Amino acid sequence: MKAKIQYRLPRNFHKTFIPERQYIHAMLRFAASGREGNYQAIASATGIPMGKSSGKVPAILDYCRGMGVIRLIGNGRSAVKRPELTPFGRIVFLEDPHLKERITQWIAHFNLCSVLAGAETWYQIFFVGSQALGMRFHRSRLEEHLSLVYNCNSRGVIGPVIRMYEDDAAFRACGVLYEEMDSVVVRRPAPINDECGFAYGAWMLQLMADHFPKANQITLAELDHKAGWKTIPGWNIDESHRAIDLIERKGIVAVDRQMNPWIIRPRSTAEEAWGRMYDDLI
User: Fold this and answer.
1) How many domains, the chain?
2) pTM assigned to the model
3) What CATH code is carried by the domain that includes residue 103?
4) Cα(193)–Cα(183) distance, rounded to whole angstroms?
5) Distance CA 133, CA 142 (A)
6) What is the pLDDT of residues 61-116, one digit of tens each?
């Protein structure tokens, strides 16, 4: 079987900018309009700041790609960019266009950690380095981990990864990471409650479609090994069982618990499940 092509965003794509939700909203509107343009034209249309030599438009466009809310149509290297909403991006634009809901932020975070199309630093912290770092680690330990991965100086290597989860303008509602007074960074596991079921199920089906497009069933162990369905949310064994129980109750997957490891079979398509992502929000 051919290896999947990986298009993770490079380490410094963000230019140290955090993903401000007001600008993500503006980019979603631009994509929904069907327009295209170079960075300056996108800046004029969206109000996202863009200077002559630098600006936030490239970073926000890349954040939106990494979060899985848009894809670029045509030649990605062209100066003219034409973003298009993904099924996840479309339901977010319709139901939570300012990304205020905690579950929206969690799914966008999951996508940033993606093996295939996320962002390199998020992938290294929340997937590859998850076991080494744990759920609580000193900031210097994180710097050391990333500097070893990239073979670079540790100064500034973390970038905006922690800040974005502490800033109300970005992703504080999900608050995946926060830093305590003694420079200890705490990682929160994704919450498991009823309102998250359809969203987690849609994300799981998307992982299956992306990584195992011809499979009609897959073991949970293989889905985590290849795509991080348990590792990226930060779940332990018990939490992962509660999560799969929740997703099964929503009718999104069938679970065969007679086998070890457990086997799951889709009972819906990812696109159908994305459309129901907000059904259980109170």
Assistant:
1) 3
2) 0.95
3) 1.10.10
4) 30
5) 7
6) 999 999 999 999 987 788 999 999 999 999 999 999 999 999 999 999 999 999 99
In a domain, 170, yes or no: yes
Cβ atoms of 184 and 139 within 8 Å: the answer is yes
Which one of 168, 187, 206 terminates a domain?
187
Q: Which domain holds residue 124?
A: 120-187
Residue 204 CA, distance from chain mean position? 12
Mean pLDDT of 229-255: 97
Report whether pLDDT(4) > 70: no
Going edge to edge, which strands form the sheet with 184-187?
Answer: 136-138, 184-187, 177-179
pLDDT at 246: 97
**Does the residue 8 lie in any domain?**
no
* Same-domain status, 242 and 202: yes
- Identity at 136, one-letter amino acid code: R
Mean pLDDT of the chain, nearest integer: 94
Same domain, 26 and 57: yes
**Are both 206 and 270 inside the same structural domain?**
yes
Task: Give which of 24, 206, 247 is closest to 114, Cα–Cα.
Answer: 206
